[in-house]
Amino acid sequence: MYSFIGSIIALVLGYLIYGKFVEGVFGIDSSKATPAERLADGVDYMEMSWTKAFLIQFLNIAGTGPIFGAVAGALWGPAAFIWIVFGCIFAGSVHDFLLGMMSLRRDGASVSEIVGENLGNGAKQIMRVFSVVLLLLVGVVFIMSPAQILKDITGISYEIWLAVIIIYYLCATVLPIDAIIGKIYPIFGLSLLVMAVGIGGGLIITNANIPEIAFVNMNPTGRSIFPYLCITIACGAISGFHATQSPMMARCLRTEKDGRKVFYGAMISEGIIALIWAAAAMSFFGGIPQLAEAGTAAVVVNKISVGILGKVGGALALLGVVACPITSGDTAFRSARLTIADSLKYKQGPIVNRFVVAIPLFVLGIALCFIPFNVIWRYFGWANQTLATIALWAAVKYLANRGKNFWIALIPAMFMTVVVTSYILAAPEGFVRFFGDKDIKVIEHIAIVIGCVVSLGCTAAFFMSNKKTNLITE
């Protein structure tokens, strides 16, 4: 219990202290007109209060990510607390804040355009494809899972629920941001926060038997903590999907001083939710072995919610496993539309133009809905963290080009490079088959060494390029 409470306090202090430090490094300027003011179009660019922008950003990046990911990560035991706290404060929140503010300074540009500006045209072209593919995977994941759950609850066919959700997604993708998203997201965002506070309060009041922090692998499968935990718990620590979402709110902030509240603050809030659900999963069933036998993440969430909060908890659990993923899926498609439009310099004011971009996206999305869910999810996890890694390297270059303290982005970029490289080499869906018949532990060690080499190579390339940089002033 002490570790759990201490971890929550650490996240709050991270926002107050390190978040303020990162804000100072970036150098906000409240006198500058924001894109929402200069480029207002009544569709994607429009001013919002920081509270509304925070709740939309929070739900955009959260959904069920910090719930399901934390429940799965809880199988490794309290080592999950360590990753959530350090990952959220020093990697995820820095990533979200820097990418959000970099986008704001570039008229709300999408992540691919930001990467291209800082890492070159080749990287931009790769990221345009990579980010749209990731957003499609996110959208499809969050069509399939709620449609299956609704089928189980109502008995209505999976295909009908797919159609209903897709029609809603299309409306949320092409209509002005305040028509649907601006109205319902703050409500769902508050509901998600209330759900987390209720579960967290229940754990404290009942003095739940939450294990204390120890870097011990408790996973019944024996799968190593590193790098698997860092891929499994993404949304509660660091997630590349957030880099695709932050530009939406960068187009809506009234002033640069709202950036830390909206971008860094939403990520810290998500980390707190991940901590709560990881703690609940570790303690509610009596231990890690019992958690492993409890069922899918959706089943675990439902049992915990009803067990701690009763009927109210059951209603909130339904909201969590159905409504929240839908609110991540619709913004995924909206972000994909904006990314493609940015790359083509295709104005999105006329609604016909929005449909021209959106329709092909939805055709591809519908086709992907008939690929097995587990296949989509596995590749989404790695692609998600790889995008975060590339975005961090872009942030490193952005800060260096302006003579700012780039170490705040460089250290997490180096770490995440080791994570994604070693994972794709050692994980079952990666290149493990090329290692022959070696023991999996040997393969993991080899993969980590290769990951370190790749990370050091990227770092060396950065320092070599940095010597030739002419500083930019803004």
Automatic annotation (TrEMBL):
Residues annotated as domain CstA N-terminal: 6-145, 149-281, 282-420
Topological type in the membrane: Multi-pass membrane protein
Cellular compartment(s): Cell membrane
Keyword Cell membrane in annotation: yes
Name recorded for this polypeptide: CstA N-terminal domain-containing protein
Phylogenetic lineage: Bacteria, Fusobacteriati, Fusobacteriota, Fusobacteriia, Fusobacteriales
Ranges that cross the membrane: 6-28, 54-75, 81-99, 129-150, 156-177, 184-205, 225-243, 263-288, 308-330, 351-373, 379-399, 406-426, 446-464
GO cellular component terms given for this protein: plasma membrane
UniProt similarity note: Belongs to the peptide transporter carbon starvation (CstA) (TC 2.A.114) family.
Keywords: Cell membrane, Membrane, Transmembrane, Transmembrane helix
Keyword Transmembrane: yes
Naturally occurring in which organism (per UniProt): Fusobacterium periodonticum D10
Pfam families registered for this protein in UniProt: CstA
Any single GO BP term: cellular response to starvation
